[in-house]
Amino acid sequence: MGKPVLYYPIEIRPLAALQAFLPDGDEIAKITVTDLRLPRALVGMILGANLAVAGALLQTITRNPLASPTLLSVNSGASLAMVTASAFSPFNSFLVIALPLVASYRWRSELVCGDADQQWLERQQ
Hints:
Layout: H1 14-19, H2 27-62, H3 74-88, H4 94-113, H5 116-124
Helix pairs in contact: 3-4
């Protein structure tokens, strides 16, 4: 078995967090802020912005201000992809998870919508 990993909170005051970006700051604060907390915060902001844009696009395309991902079965396609990737994945890799996601979305789109999305695009032009 491996070594047990212990997680414990590290209290970093706001001034120490700002000083972590300076060359003479506390080493533990530097590592904690720049290697752990800052990347997580940035990824959270980027993902939140992507979800906002996706929601706005979904509402614009369907012309429905109350549109949700369940309207187009996006949740079902994502669930199918995750189950497929988890069941058949010999190892955890980005490509092993991302490729079934894209494939299931496209498969679900063809199964549910048929060529309705293509017809809709032609009407818009």
